[in-house]
Amino acid sequence: MKKWAVALTSGMVMLSANAMAEEDTVHLYTWTEYVPEGLLDKFTEETGIKVEVSSLESNETMYAKLKIQGKDGGYDVIAPSNYFVSKMGREGMLLELDHSKLPVIKDLNPDWLDQAYDKGNKYSLPQLLGAPGIAFNTDDYQGSNFTSWSDLWKPEFKDSVQLLDDAREVFNIALLKLGQDPNTQDPEVIKAAYEELLKLRPNVLAFSSDNPANSFISGEVSVGQLWNGSVRIAKKEQAPVDMVFPKEGPVLWVDTLAIPANAKNPDGAHKLINYLLSAPVAEKLTLAIGYPTSNMKALDVLPKEITEDPAIYPPSEVLKTSHWQDDVGEAIELYEKYYQELKAAQ
Predict the structure, then answer these.
(1) How many Cα neighbours within 13 Å face the side chain of 259?
(2) What is the per-residue pLDDT across 156-214, written as a single tens digit (0 to 9) for each?
(3) Cβ contacts of residue 153 below 8 Å, gap of 6+?
(4) Is 325 annotated as a binding residue?
(5) Which domains does the chain have, with CATH numbers?
(6) Which member of 54, 241, 320, 341 lies 3.0 to 4.6 Å from 234 by CB, making a disulfide possible if both were Cys?
(7) Is 340 annotated as a binding residue?
(8) From which residue to which does the signal peptide run (predicted)?
(9) pTM for this entry
């Protein structure tokens, strides 16, 4: 009897220790640049909760990892882009947020909330806004040289254009040029966009999404597709770079914070989300990486060189003509197929 009692007690102690370990740790799976050094220190000081960070490579990789994990879990907070929030929410992969544990919501930009991809912000809260435009070297060009995505097709840009290395981002510009919905799932329309991109291919020098500002900073590229956060990085390096949003508008994305349905520490996850979206943290993050923050209080204290730069913070007239990138379901396979063929084309 004593042996069983000892064994039972030991087992209970181990279970209790494991439970405490889970409560004392939050596993965050986010984009590498979104956690600059020291950003999480105060969270641990205030809550006693440690944060273990895993680097998110792509939405597709994140989705696949969560599918493989199943009920076992592994992450408590993730950072899916808005078009994956809708997909994962439909598939039961996300936990419904408890808004009573997220008082920071009142400080978030109402224009970013309650969007079609997550009505009522049932599963996610917006963190940072991405807006791709046409970037250019100001020593060589003026913003007036670029009014439409179709300008990138001009023969004068042969072997000189950089595109983002992302199927949807690249197809977006062709679809907008053709006057089509950038979220189309129509195979014929997608094929037409591919054929339009083949006409652009002679102008394409490179595809890059890994620190795409670097080629502008080094002077290797003087025209191309770039994200607003990347423009901020280039300007911080004193590079002669600026960016405009074409008349067709950019296709916007928002990186969000959400909790997987299989999270082991949902309470700690809510606390971390509230912290990451708070004004002081949001300010630090935007200063570090340039992307516009959803926190309105942070907006009030950020330097005007960021908030009043239309290449970084798209003005309201641009936002009104913008589109939101959305999930395209199984059509993504067709996009990816054509995209690989485009990259292989000469």
Answers:
(1) 24
(2) 999 999 999 989 999 999 999 999 999 999 999 999 999 999 999 999 999 988 788 99
(3) 177, 199, 200, 203
(4) yes
(5) 25-130+252-312 (3.40.190.10), 132-249+319-344 (3.40.190.10)
(6) 241
(7) no
(8) 1-21
(9) 0.84
